[in-house]
Amino acid sequence: MKKxxxxxxxxxxxxxxxxxxxxxxDSSAPEETISTSEDIVxxxxxxxxxxxxxxxxxxxxxxxxxxxPANSAExxxxxxxxxxxxxxxxYWGSAEKDGYMLAYNAGIADIQGDGSYTVSVTAxxxxxxxxxxxxxxxPYTPEGLxxxxxxxxxxxxxxxxxxxxxxxxxxxxxxxxxxxxxYTCSDDGKETRANIYNTYVTAPATDARSPEGALxxxxxxxxxxxxxxSAQIVDPEAFATWTTVEVNFTITGTGNSAPAENSSxxxxxxxx
Length: 272
Fold this sequence. Notes:
Elements: H1 2-14, H2 56-62, E1 77-83, E2 90-91, E3 109-110, E4 115-122, H3 126-133, E5 147-152, H4 155-158, E6 163-171, E7 174-175, E8 185-186, E9 192-198, E10 209-210, E11 213-214, E12 244-252
């Protein structure tokens, strides 16, 4: 019951407020609406490993389960932000707040310069199953997709000219066809992002940048190439049910070249 109440409240909140590089449908003069993931409050089940921090009873309930590492993205590291179709199972780069269920074994990429990287999430963990169902061994499969994006905390400060190019997206090992080109922007002037599926965006952001350059001229008018870019570059039907999502991307414009041996970090799907 708790799950569905929280799910309902979260969905209601997001009907009016959502983190996005949100724009008007008029691409020649888009209007940007700013909100962040910090506007959302997510509550951990009392017995989850996350809630167990500082809670003796919760710690005792969870201490006999060998949970996978719950990963958080630090400044300058990339992560895969994702929200399922129910606004329930999600990940916002933190193991402690704003959607923690997919933090377990989340693939984080340490951006060391221009190069290729991989970020990922998986629901095939004891931690995710326990947080969602209360049983680390009870099967659970997320359904649907509400949001998907590659994010870099403090990316606009550390790499103000960086451009993220999505190279491939795999759902449970199956590579998806990309329907458009992605662009790079920021929602809050701090965190760099590359939207993959964001229905709250109707036109690329005015600060959008791409391997071809800016998408708008100095007066804010959309250039011809702007039509080739979108905040929705995948078919959501490919996420009808999913367990592991992996995104490979290339970043340029950081001002450095990543060491070849460190340019890609990938987290394999864990054993159940």
